[in-house]
Predict the 3D structure of the following.
Amino acid sequence: MLADLHTHSSRSDGTTTPTELVTAAKAAGLDVVALTDHDTADGWAEAAEAAARVGITLVRGMELSTKYDGHSVHLLAYLPDPTYPPLVAELARINDGRTERMPTMVRNLQLAGHAITAEDVLAVSSEGAVLGRPHVADALVRNGVVASRDEAFATLLGPGGVGYVRRYGAPLQPTIDLVREAGGVAVIAHPRGRGLGLADDAIAELSRHSLTGIEVDHQGHSPQDRAELRALAADLGLVATGSSDYHGAGKVDHELGCNTTAPEQLERLLDAAERSRLASGRPAPAVLPA
Ligand code: AMP
Ligand code: FE
Ligand code: FE
Ligand code: ZN
């Protein structure tokens, strides 16, 4: 039983549509796939339709932009009710922050002499997609400014780069609670990921509140990171997940199924989600079986 619990479609910064993603997941031999676009549930309906057609189990999720101690942390939210008003409001606030920073990013890049316009960014994005730095990167690639997303992040879009502009992130602990109130469960994405990490003592603190799991097997984690995080999860009673963080052509070496979640860990995660759903009283979505 192969489960990949963290993927992105063109509803955020992936390069494949939800339909293409789900179809590719089936072709890759996966039994379970989670769609976890950044800060949106927009791809869920299309993914659900495709999953039913190709015969793969779908876990509906999202990857929320949060802040802890002033730095960015990505939080995977599985099976929350996407209509829960406080969640809708928080997603709107996050995405307003994305929209507001975009003109500043473009202007700062222009002032530094780089060829890019707001229209260029929209031209490389799907209509209505949650816009991020990867779309700016794709526009810079198309305009011949850089050769790849990686180069764009390394030279212009990372912290300290001329195109870097901070944006709003939701406060981490309250957002974990929010996900639970919406009937879902929360998992810290890539806690040892570059620039998006979370220290072990912070994970321990969150585990005493409402955190359900941590992503252990991720391409951003070394073998030693994985071993240490697996032990930490076991110590704290947290679910340990593994995922590709697939972005289509947008991230190299993140192919579907390159990391997977063990069946017993998936079962624990889904049991916790079911308990959360029942406790919340929200009409949270169920897993869509193959
Ligand atoms: P944003 O949310 O707009 O600040 O952009 C952050 C996103 O950029 C993350 O979700 C990553 O998936 C993506 N990202 C970060 N670094 C890179 C990189 N070197 N190459 C491709 N994508 C990246
Ligand atoms: Fe991303
Ligand atoms: Fe992430
Ligand atoms: Zn991701």
Notes: The pocket of adenosine monophosphate (ligand 1) is lined by residues 13, 38, 132-134, 149-150, 153, 247, 250-251 (CB under 6 Å). The CA atoms of residues 2 and 31 lie 5 Å apart. The longest strand covers residues 57-68. The two ends are 12 Å apart (CA to CA).
